[in-house]
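As agreed, record passed on underneath.
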Amino acid sequence: MGFLGISKSYTNKEWVGPSDQDWQKASLISKDLSISQLSAYQLIKNKINEKDYLGYISPKIKNLVPNPKTFLSMEEGSLRLKRAIEKKERVAVFADYDVDGTVSAALICLWLRNFCIEPTVYIPDRELEGYGPNIDAMNKLAADHHLIICVDCGTDSEKAIRVATDSGVDVIVIDHHKSETFSESAYAVINPNRFDEKNTFPYLCAAGVVFIFLVEMNSIVSEEERSKINLLSYLDLVSLATVADVVPLIGLNRAYVKQGLKIFQNRLCLKMFGTHFNLLEHFNEETIAFQVAPRLNASGRIGSALLTYQFLVSTDADEIENYISEMETANRERKALEKIILSTAVKQISNSEIKRPYTMVKGKGWHKGVIGIIASRLKDLYAGLCVAITIDGNIAHGSIRSTEQIDLTKILHELKYHDVLISGGGHKQAAGFSLLVDKLNEFDEIVANHLPDQSSFNDSRSLLEIDGMIDIEGVNTDLIDNLNLLGPYGSQVPQPVIVIPNCQILFTKEMGEGHLLCKLKRDKGTLDAVCFNAKKSGLDISLSKPNLILHIAGNLVKNEWRGVIKPQMRIVDIAQT
């Protein structure tokens, strides 16, 4: 029996709530810590010991950053960069084209500027070169550099790296992508997800690993040089990459984001960016995820990610304003392309007679820079595993997204083992690949065979996890502030979904494209609410019937309008009583 007896909501979800045992335990914790029962349940859900509560809501970097030397190759890599500094060698940075890659490059650059070294930064063209180091680029960099540092890429790029090392150039890789192999030619491969690592920090993004590398670098330079460098001032950038790369917000990542958010406006480029788009009030991890990261990623999708890198390291206000304008132009183009391709993809799915246990769309000439977004949008619409492919001649370039149940790194490994892919890489729930068009049938068969039993898969993806229930009269900004203390929320730590039972809808008002504003009422209490993408999710129908008594599930947030801050529910699901 579902929570409140809901076995099928308006979005076809069964609601599953806390067990009686956990809810009773939450009641005891709430009394001991003087926090709400809803907050106490988050500690239980996220397996946080009651005695660790204060440390959890105020995580300290110094308590969570490991000894850098616990990472394989850390000592070799840091000593090699130290030698480059001492000899004033020419250093190049080869970075991935997403936010994690550009931030990682920016961190290296900003740190090296303390030693009057301005590295050459090379970011490949997504359309022409694809992901990771390639032979031509590494050859070019090797011609006039002594050291190349690959960030957010390069772990298994043996052929390209060997081109550089054969020319007498050393290559350091700082990465976080899983791989069954790593480059033997590289001087050092620093990656918590190396197959031979202890795997104690598998959840870090590349910028998170770079930060630990810089902690080690700070420890081996002279005290005089170290005193000029405030590494904690880099946490704004690390938090940006951590949220943008959708890595789990647990452990050290929580501290990166929690501390980074506090200083986000200290960096001129980020403050100007926030001001330009009116984002600075109530700035949080969601602002980064939905407002900042997409705009910064757009230049790498549509044009050159070098633009984003230049923005991140700039200290000139006029330059920054120009970069913001150029990035927003790219973002508008990205949105337009996404809208056209997504519409085509949805029609393709509805017209398809092919039955497969996952969703696949493909088209000729779709822009490579947006197919990752298309795969993500399809996952939101259809759930399960979704693949979007663009065909260019006899080559197919694809992006794949999955749920927590499906590990894409295992699927990629199988595809590579059977020699199906030209290239491929990524994470558990997001990956990219390329292959010959005539290999698509083999691709389809291997992916389908890797999926879990469909009956259990469909059952699990139709559940909505509920974190508790509250009356409208109990909702206030203090309650929301206390829930927010347990953030940042994101990957593996979702924002609490709370039910307000037995509500009526006083009114609804359309806002933007398919979003609805409404007001909930129960007894004498009322609460403002918003339902994003109401039409896409099918919730607009239930919200348009004011006489219905409904259970409303959603996230509790604060909303400011004309200087007044009020609680608001962000609706995620609705069920009839």
User: Anything to note?
Assistant: The CA atoms of residues 59 and 156 lie 34 Å apart. The domain at 3-15+466-576 is CATH 2.40.50.140 (OB fold (Dihydrolipoamide Acetyltransferase, E2P)).
